[in-house]
Amino acid sequence: MRPFLLLATRAEDAIADDEFAAVVRHGGLQPGQVVRLRVDREPIGELDLDAWSGILLGGSPFNSSDPVETKSAVQLEVEAELARVLDLVVEQDFPFLGACYGIGTLGTHEGAVVDRTFAEPVGPVSVELTLAGRKDPLCAGLPTRFDAFVGHKEAVRELPSGAVLLATSDPCPVQMFRIKKNLYATQFHPELDADGLSRRIEEYKHHGYFAPHETEELKAVARRSAVPHPPRLLRNFFRLYARD
């Protein structure tokens, strides 16, 4: 099988490693079937799509909607690298799944309005598939309504032209969309379980997602939550697009 490529932008080693391990574990793959490239540390270079089964873009402390003058040199370089990849991916309708930062990145590339209108508190949210989502192969096996973990400073407010809304929630209307046939993005985290979210809460407690004094209560809420369904998206993505 040709491997999948995970484009990662988390600077913290422990959290970056945890995200990578979660994608492999929850996706039902073996080490080596997903290759990680930490874009904040090394350039992507020339990308031969024929070498890969598909591409994933994980979460990040970066926000697509932040004013350009507030973005670090690293973030601007990452955005330029990812824009170059998406030029190629979108043109070829190459299998792509972006989560968290991935929805803002793909959305921005395709003309979505991404801002802080529907920023979400950290924790579980009830996500509902649209009629299109219920028919989409990436959502096969998901119940119409399920809980997922979120926690974001920004979200897609207006879909890009031609995008199909696949999932929504009351606090954040755009939870998942598709462009063309093979380009997907989710606001919620398909790779996160309660332990993973708890580790991120601890790591990012001074990053403005919540008040630091809320840290332990947010962890407790995460551990009380039943969130078994979102990883099916990863398994479906790998199953649908794996190729020899």
TrEMBL record:
One of its GO terms (molecular function) is transferase activity. Residues 46-192 form the Glutamine amidotransferase domain. Keywords: Glutamine amidotransferase, Transferase. It comes from Raineyella fluvialis. This is Glutamine amidotransferase. It comes from the Bacteria. Pfam families: GATase (PF00117). InterPro entries: ChyE-like (IPR044992), Class_I_gatase-like (IPR029062), GATASE (IPR017926). GO terms for cellular component: cytosol. PROSITE patterns: GATASE_TYPE_1.
